[in-house]
Every structure is written in C-alpha cells, then in structure tokens.
C-alpha cells in the first residue's frame, strides 16, 4: 500500500469513527487497533472511562492487525493494540515500536452451520478440524485481510501443510463482523475471535463447532510508536493510555466487561 493511499485510509477511518471529536490536540491520542476490540464493544466501554480519568480523547482506527501495525510503522498513530505476536516482535525489532505490554487475551473459535457437514466437532484437534473442511471441500470464509485472525487461520492451514486453494475457500478481505455475517448467510465455516463472536452470535445462524485448543490462544499487546523515529507522535498521551490499560483499574474493567452475561477478554498484564 503506497503512502498516499495509507494516509487517505487513516483520514477516512478517523472521520468515520465514533470517537472522533474536535478536542484539544494536546489531549488527543491516535490508537490503531483490531476490529475485534472495536466490534466487541470493549473499546467504547474502556475509553469512556479513560477519558473521565485522564481528560484524553482517543481517536480509534479499527482495522486488521497488519494494517494497524503499518499505520504505526508510518508514524500515523501514537500507539497500537494488536494480536499477532510474530508481527509485533518484528515491529519492535525494526525500531517502530517500544514498551510492549501484555493487556489481555481471549481465544479463537471455529464456527459454522449447525448441521456441521464437515463433522469438525468430531475431530481431535483444530488441525484435524481444518483438514476435514478442506478434504470435504466445504465452504470456508476467510477474512483475507492480514489481520491477526487471518494470520492465525493461515498458521493452522500451514500446520496441516495445506494450501487453502480448494474451490469452496473464499477470501473476502473484510473485518470480523462482516465476515461472520457472510458466513452465516452462506452457511459456511470461519475462524473468529471469541469476543466478536459473543457480540454477534444472537444475530447469526451459526454455532461454535471447535474451541479450546492451544493453537487458538489469542493474546493482545499494547505498543507505543517509537518517538525517536517519529518525534511528532503524542508519546506522553500514548504512555498514559498504555499505563492506564495495564494498571489495576483498566485490568479490572477488562475483566468486568460482559456481553450477554459472558466475559469476552481476560486481563493478563500482571502475568
């Protein structure tokens, strides 16, 4: 993605986001994060409390992890909160990010039609579940957007030494919410983070068919954009938000957040 297009995307995301206001620039922070933290409702819940405590307004750019990290690489945001440990490590090693901190985790789940035509619920592990979908050529909707969820999905295919090119594999280039909606409409399988699933499940004709596997662990980190590389970033405000997320109040709020009575994330800054 060239610089002009990326900056246009940044502007469009800011303008379309509900947190965008004409606040004092010294009290505004730009956060690039995943669609899962946004669509689940967690960010609205957390950032309202953060503003009360700090006075800062947070402009949220909700996109896939790959694009969120790219925004950080270009200095277009002040911090990122993502869920792809390998990509995050590279982001830090290349000098784009500093002060990585664990914030929380949830897990991924494999969802699909209630009749489970590929019998994935009968498999012994998530690799076998994916293999059954490919073997029987059942419809699978992939986010296809370089998000953390997409990269996790590709890693599971790779564990099976399967290249997902079977005829019923669809790569749609969408966020988690639209991908789930499409999978429901088409009665397809898809991989989703549990948080977005819980937020959307009542409007979907899908069920969880496979869960609780070590490969499905889904950790989130918050990372500051390196002010030595990008002096114009709002390092002070970003650090205040990072501190707030990992300190007792932020961690307690994460654990207390519920959708339909169920917790979506587990705070783990102190682990």
UniProtKB/TrEMBL annotation:
Domain PBP spans what residues?
31-247
Stretch forming the signal peptide: 1-23
User: Keyword Signal: yes or no?
Assistant: yes
Offer one Pfam family short name for this entry.
Answer: PBP_like_2
Q: Which UniProt keywords apply?
A: Signal
Q: Which PANTHER family match?
A: EXTRACELLULAR TUNGSTATE BINDING PROTEIN
Q: What name has this protein been given in UniProt?
A: Substrate-binding domain-containing protein
Give the species this sequence originates from: Vibrio metschnikovii
């Amino acid at each position: 993605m060239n610089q002009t297009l990326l900056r246009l995307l940044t502007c469009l995301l800011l303008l379309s986001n509900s947190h965008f206001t004409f606040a004092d620039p010294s009290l505004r922070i730009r956060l690039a994060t995943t669609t899962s933290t946004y669509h689940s409702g967690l960010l609205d819940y957390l950032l309202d409390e953060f503003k009360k405590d700090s006075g800062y307004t947070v402009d949220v750019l909700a996109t896939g992890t790959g694009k969120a990290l790219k925004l950080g690489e270009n200095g277009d945001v002040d911090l990122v909160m993502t869920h792809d440990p390998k990509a995050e490590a590279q982001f830090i090693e290349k000098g784009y990010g500093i002060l990585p901190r664990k914030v929380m985790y949830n897990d991924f789940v494999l969802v699909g039609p209630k009749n489970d035509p590929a019998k994935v619920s009968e498999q012994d592990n998530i690799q076998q579940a994916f293999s059954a979908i490919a073997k029987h050529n059942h419809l699978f909707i992939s986010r296809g957007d370089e998000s953390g969820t997409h990269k996790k999905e590709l890693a599971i295919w790779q564990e099976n030494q399967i290249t997902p090119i079977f005829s019923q594999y669809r790569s749609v280039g969408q966020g988690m919410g639209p991908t789930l909606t499409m999978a429901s409409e088409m009665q397809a399988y898809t991989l989703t983070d549990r948080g977005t699933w819980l937020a959307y499940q009542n409007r979907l004709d899908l069920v969880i068919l496979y869960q609780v596997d070590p490969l499905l662990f889904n950790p989130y980190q918050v990372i500051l954009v390196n002010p030595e590389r990008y002096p114009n970033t709002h390092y002070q405000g970003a650090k205040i938000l990072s501190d707030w997320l990992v300190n007792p109040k932020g961690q307690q709020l994460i654990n207390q957040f519920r959708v339909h009575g169920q917790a979506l994330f587990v705070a783990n800054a102190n682990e």
